[in-house]
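Q: For a teaching session next week I want to show students how multiple molecules come together into a single three-dimensional assembly. I've collected the sequence lines for a complex. Could you give me the predicted C-alpha cells for the whole thing so I can convert them for display?
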Amino acid sequence: MSDINIISLFESILDKSSIITGEKLKSRFYHIWKTDIPLESICLLLPKDTDQVSAILKTCNDNNQEIIVHGGLTNLVGSTKSTKNQVVVSLEKMNNIIEIDEKGKTVTCESGVIIEDIINSVKEKDLLLPLNFGARGSAQIGGAVSTNAGGLRVFKYGMTRSLVLGLEAVLPDGTLISSLKKLMKDNSGYDLKQFFIGSEGTLGIVTKVVLRLYQHPKTRYTALAVTNDYQKVLNLLRFMEDKISKNLTAFELLWNDTYKQMVSDKTMYNKYLPDNYKYYVFIEYMGGDFENDYNTFEKAVMETLEQGLVDDAVLGKNEKEQLNIWGIREDVAVLAEEKKFDQQFDISIPVAQIGEVIDKTINELKNCKGVETIFPFGHVADGNIHFIIGKNSDDDDLKSNINEIIYSNTELVKGSISAEHGIGLDKKKYLIKSRSKDEIELMKLIKKSIDPKNILNPGRVF
Amino acid sequence: MSDINIISLFESILDKSSIITGEKLKSRFYHIWKTDIPLESICLLLPKDTDQVSAILKTCNDNNQEIIVHGGLTNLVGSTKSTKNQVVVSLEKMNNIIEIDEKGKTVTCESGVIIEDIINSVKEKDLLLPLNFGARGSAQIGGAVSTNAGGLRVFKYGMTRSLVLGLEAVLPDGTLISSLKKLMKDNSGYDLKQFFIGSEGTLGIVTKVVLRLYQHPKTRYTALAVTNDYQKVLNLLRFMEDKISKNLTAFELLWNDTYKQMVSDKTMYNKYLPDNYKYYVFIEYMGGDFENDYNTFEKAVMETLEQGLVDDAVLGKNEKEQLNIWGIREDVAVLAEEKKFDQQFDISIPVAQIGEVIDKTINELKNCKGVETIFPFGHVADGNIHFIIGKNSDDDDLKSNINEIIYSNTELVKGSISAEHGIGLDKKKYLIKSRSKDEIELMKLIKKSIDPKNILNPGRVF
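A: Of course. Below is the structure for the complete assembly, covering every listed component.
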C-alpha cells in the first residue's frame, strides 16, 4: 500500500492534527539526545486513547505495515529508530493519571505519563513510586514497563516488573488485553502482564498500567565507606542487611578511577574521603521513625569502623552533605563527557564475583589500544555494574573489541549483557552471550505466535 | 499407540524400577490427602535427571501421548488428577540441592526437592528461604514454582515468582530451556522464566531452579490487636508500615467467627483477648537487632493503643506466647474439621475493599440454605482472603451456589478467583469471572504455540 493510502486509513481513526507528516516530521526525532537528526517515517501518529491505538494496530496489521513505538525516547539501545517505510506511534498524548488510590496504595495511569509526574503526584498523598533513574524527567511509564526499567531503588523495591499490578495492552492485531487490577496476588491463569513487561514493545503496545505504591519514607540518611578489598564490600553488605534490615535502600559502588573523576576539579563535589582507596560504597537508609532512625544508622556505621569492616566511613549529616554524596554516585554524565567518544554498558554479574570479574575486565580494557578512560560503577547489591568507557575514536573495530572484552567476561560467569537497558537493535549481536540458541528460538516462537506478520517493533531484541 | 508399546519406548529411557505399572500403580495416588484412591494412569515415570525428562517428553510428543506432572501432590485445584490413558511423570527422584551459594545468597536445586528441606538446609548457613505455607513439608519446589505459590511471607518477600532468579525447564517437545542464572537483574531478551512460573505446568516441566535467599532474621516478635472497624485495620496497617517499615513481615486478619472457633474448647489455644471483636489482626516483626527490636516493636504497639487505632492489643512476650498466637492464625485445619463437607477459597480483593466485600459475602452465604459455618481469614495486607465454608451436604447445587456467591462478589470489585492456589481443573468454569475472553484466548494461543499437540498437563487452567 502506498504511503498516501495508509495515511488516508489513519485519517478515519485520528483527527488530522494527530497525524504528523511531511515537513512537520523534520521537527521530530527518535532519541532525546539526538534532536538534530530528523525522524524517518511515513508518518507519526498521536493516539489519544486505547481505542485509537487498537484501530491503528488493526489497520497496520491488515496492511502489513510496520510500526515503531515511541515513549519518552530515553532508550539506550536504539529501540526507537525507524525507517522511512515505517509508521511511528507515540503515546505522548495518553498522559492522564487516571486514579491515585490512597487506601489501596496504587496509581492507575496511561502509558504516556512522564515518570517524574507520577512520582510528584503520589508524593502529595505521602506515597512513593520507587522508580528512580536518571531519565525519570523524560521517560514515560509505558516505556519503563515495556523495558522493565531498573534504577537506584531496585535493591529494596525491585525492577519495574515488581511494581506492576495491572496492565492494559493492545496486541499487534488490535485485540485489547485489559487487566487493570489492583491485586498483589493473582494466580487465575497465566500472568499475561509478565509477557508484556520487558519484551520491549514487540508483543503489544502497553496503553495503561496500575502500579503499586509505598508509604513515603520520612527519613533518609547516607553514608560513604571505603575499603581496598572486595570481600569487605560483601561483608559490609551482609552486616548492613543484618543491622538495618530492610531500611537499607541502596548499596552502590564506585571504583577508584570513577570516584577520582567524580571528585576532580571538573565537578563541584567535595570528596569527604581520600581518593586513594579501591572501593567507595554508598549506603542509603530510609525509614519512618524520626526519633530513632539516625541513631540506628549511625550506630551501624560506627560498628563497621570498630569491627574493621571498612577502612573509613563518613555520614551525610545534613541535606547538603547527602546531596553531595549522592551527586558523586549519580551525576555520571561527567564520566561520559570526559572523552569525545564513549561506550556504555549495564552488565549483570553474580554479586560474589563482581570483584574479580571487574578487575580482569579493567586489565583487558587497559591493554586495548584506543581505550582512554575506564569508569566502572553500579548497583553492587543487585549485581548490576555499569561501565562508561572513553575512547579516542568511533572506529568500528575498537567498538567491537570493547564489546567483546566486556561481554565475554560477563558470559564466563553466567552474567547478562543487559541488566537494565534491554537489547533493542544495538545489542542483538551479543544476545547469544547471555541466552542459549534454544532460548532465543523460544522467544521467536512466542513473537511469531502473537505477531505473525512481524509488524510491531520489528527487528528489536532478536 | 498401545500402552505396551509406549511403555517399551520408556524402557529405552529409564531403568525398569523407574517405570511403575500394573499392580504397583495401586499404591500410588494423585493427592496427598487422598491416599485411598489409587492412581489412574498407563504408567508412572520417575526420571532421575533433566535428560530423562527431555527424552520422556520427546517420546510422548512424537506419539501424541498426554502427560500429567506430579510434584508433592499438595495442589488444591485438582491439577494432579489423571486418567487411565495418561502417563504420569513424578519429579520425586530429582531431589538434589545442587548448591547453596552463601556469598551470593542463592540456592540451586532440582525440582523434586521438598520445600522444607531447602528451608532447613539454608538455615544452617544463616539464610532464609521465605517460602512458607502449610504444605511446605510435602510440597516440592518445582510445584511451588509452576503454581507461583504464596503463603505467609508474601507481604514482605513476594510470591514464589519474586524468589526465582533462574530456571531450567523442558518444553513439550523435549527442548531444554536452561537459564540457571543467579542474577537479580536481567533484561537480555524476553524473561522466559516468567512463562513457566504460575502456568501450572502447561508450558513446560520445570526441572531446576535458582532461588534468591535472604539473611535469616535474628528476632521475631508478634502482636495481636482487635477492632470493630475495618477502616481501623487499614489505618493500623499504614501506621505499622510507617513505624516499623520493612520489619513488618506479616499482617494477617481473622474475622470474629473464625477467631471464636480457633480459641474454642476444640483447640488448645489461649485466647489472650476477648472473643467479641469483629476483627483480629496478627502482626509479625522480624529484624536483625537483638538490643533494639523488641523496644521498637513494643513502642509501636503501645502507640496504636494510645492513639485509639485499635481497641486492645497484646504482645507475644516469649516463644510460647508467640507460638500460641500464630497457632490461632495458622492451624486452620480446625476450621475444615468442623463440618463433614466444606469448600475452601483463596480469593484476591483490593485491600481497601475487603471490609465491605467480606461483609456482603458473609450475609449472602448466611442466606444460602445448607451453609452451616463461614470462616473467613487471610493475608489482609496482600488482599488475599481465604474462606472455609462448612456445609450439611456435598450437593452439587449447593456447591455451585456457594461458588457463585463468592466469585460474583469477587468479580464486582475486579478481584481474582485465585490469589494463590491456581485454576487447575476445579476452577476452570469460573476463570471467566477473573479474566476476559480475550485474555483467555491469548493464554490458549500461547499454549498452542508451545504445546501444539496439547500433550502436557492438558485441560488444566482453561
